[in-house]
Amino acid sequence: MARGLRSMEVIILPDAEAVGKEAARRIAELIRRKPNCVLGLATGSTPIPCYRELIRMHKEEGLDFSHVTTFNLDEYYPIDPRHPQSYRYFMDENLFNHINIDKSRTFVPYGLAPDPYEHAEWYEEQIKKAGGIDLQILGIGHNGHIAFNEPGSSLASRTRVKTLTRETIEANARFFDRPEDVPRYAITMGIGTILEAREIILLATGEGKADAVAKAIEGPVTTMCPASALQLHPRVTFILDEAAASKLQRKDYYKYVHEMAEALKKQILEARMRA
Ligand code: GLP
Predict the structure, then answer these.
(1) Cα–Cα distance list, 191 to 29, 66, 230 (Å)
(2) Ligand 1 atom at shortest distance from the alpha carbon of 139
(3) Whose CA is nearest to atom 13 of ligand 1?
(4) Is the pLDDT confidence value at 197 over 50?
(5) CATH, range 9-274
(6) pLDDT tens across 88-132, in order?
(7) What pTM value is reported for the model?
(8) How far, in Å, is the centroid of ligand 1 from the Cα of 264?
(9) pLDDT at residue 2, rounded to an integer
(10) Which of 19, 41, 45, 46 to probe ligand 1 with, by most ligand atoms within 8 A of CB?
(11) Which residue in 90, 152, 196, 257 is a FRET match for 103, CA 20 to 30 A apart?
(12) Of 194, 143, 159, whose CA–CA distance to 77 is shortest?
């Protein structure tokens, strides 16, 4: 976690690769400082470069995941965890199978839970039992959703069953053989659950996310853009590529703030070394 009390920080990097590396660097820093940390993880195409970099860090730098616990944001319902489009399968394939994490400490909502409502409550309890989430990674949907909290979700919502919007089903249809195969429900952490993480990093890349990002950062806090709720969190960082940042009105200012903050940190470090 970066030093001191902060509020919201916006970091704009050249491309998706750089976004992934910066997120991985921050996750690795936390794991080294707190080996038994609790990570909140996301699926989707956006975090893939981050997971790739974490795998590289594990293989080449010995980054140790053996004491780490993870909670994924969401899962389709109903879906078999062995289905290639399930989020459990995604996490195994894109991260867990390539690092030394104890699989019994990787939580993803169970897509075949006989009672998904009960399962959602159980999931919340597991997060509490683990001591809460230290760092939550998020992506963002085109309509501003985080996890599967679609526009209209209560800002105080907890882990629960959600009915997916038609846009989300359409956006995700490309991953399934036939559009009618996309599950209609999901089990998802709520916005209230997400806001309880001690630190949040939202990743967004590509022009398709520019509108949602602008609304989330510079728009009003509204249930119509669930990601705007992050404005209420005391420690949140948006890591964006140029394309996803392209509709921010105060883009140049955010870049300037970041450069100035880095310069100040360097100065403090140098002064400390001289002392
Ligand atoms: C899905 C997931 C979200 C994710 C979003 C964006 O709806 N439930 O957690 O942030 O898609 O996905 P992508 O990163 O592929 O654009």
Answers:
(1) 26, 29, 9
(2) 10
(3) 44
(4) yes
(5) 3.40.50.1360
(6) 999 999 999 999 999 999 999 999 999 999 999 999 999 999 999
(7) 0.95
(8) 35
(9) 47
(10) 46
(11) 196
(12) 159
